[in-house]
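Hi all, long-time lurker, first post. I run a small reading group and we've been trying to get comfortable going from sequence to structure in the token notation. Rather than ask abstract questions, I figured I'd post a concrete chain and ask someone more experienced to write out its structure so we can walk through it together at our next meeting. Sequence below, copied exactly:
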Amino acid sequence: MNWNMVHNTLINTSFLLLLINLITVWTTIAFPKFIWLKVFNKWQVIAVNVLLSIALGSRWLIHGYFPLSNLYESLIFLTWCLTFTQILINKQIKSQLVGAISVPIEVFIVAFASLSLPQEMQKASPLVPALHSNWLIMHVTVMILSYAFLLIGSLLSILFLLITRGQAVKLQGSSTGYIIDNSQISNAPWSSSYNNQVEISKQQLSQKPYSKINLLESLDNLSYRTIGLGFPLLTIGIISGAVWANEAWGSYWSWDPKETWALITWLIFASYLHSRLTKSWQGKKPAILASLGFFIVWICYLGVNFLGQGLHSYGWVS
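-- Answer (accepted) --
Happy to help. Here is the structure in token form:
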């Protein structure tokens, strides 16, 4: 059996399903009455995750190590993590927003890995001596899974900023309601006696489930919870990487470019969570910080490797 052909078929089928899912998920947003499409979207994502699991698992069995030896394998695993995160979040909420923002990223990643990378880079290569360790699974998989959570959480914050562009919106988290600028609701049925600000109680919001403020509340909370899941994983990944580095290179921390940007990523999202927990920032300010984290994660994940510098440059881009 030609395992390379089987692997390519699995990846190409996953790409096709993601492309179809990209169309159908935006269709359900434009036409929310198509309930059957929402169920179809859910099973499409599950099918993609299963296909990628088979592709990665077969590669693992054939070559005898977890498939994270090069950029191609890492991108495929990142796509698996993104679909896995999407499935987990979809179990908690009945919304197509997560798919609408994550599926385009997944399509781009699979297309880049399959079509842009040379065939030589897509082939499995023997592990370098430093990677012959059980820490490979512990460190790298946890780091990439944390990237998936952080990327989706950051994308939700970017969506929050796009919806509130040019508008003064201040969410008050766990307080009794939300305060927004009066100009934003001057035409709304509940605006009346307030001059500059209007407080909308949660009871009123529950009676208007499709209101813009309710949407903003959902995006803000979902972004916070998703990043809250990714941050502990990032912390565990950095700690396990330090232990592995001490075993492989004799030092827990060497200020390698990858390590430095991992620390910057950790500080960005630690600041975001600190601002949310202390309630010193609400609404747009933490969303801007999380949006910045989206680009920082990509620099940490890919940017450093494209430079080809540091101890983490092997197996990626020469």
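A couple of things your group might point at:
The longest strand covers residues 177-181.
The beta strands are 169-170, 177-181, 197-201.
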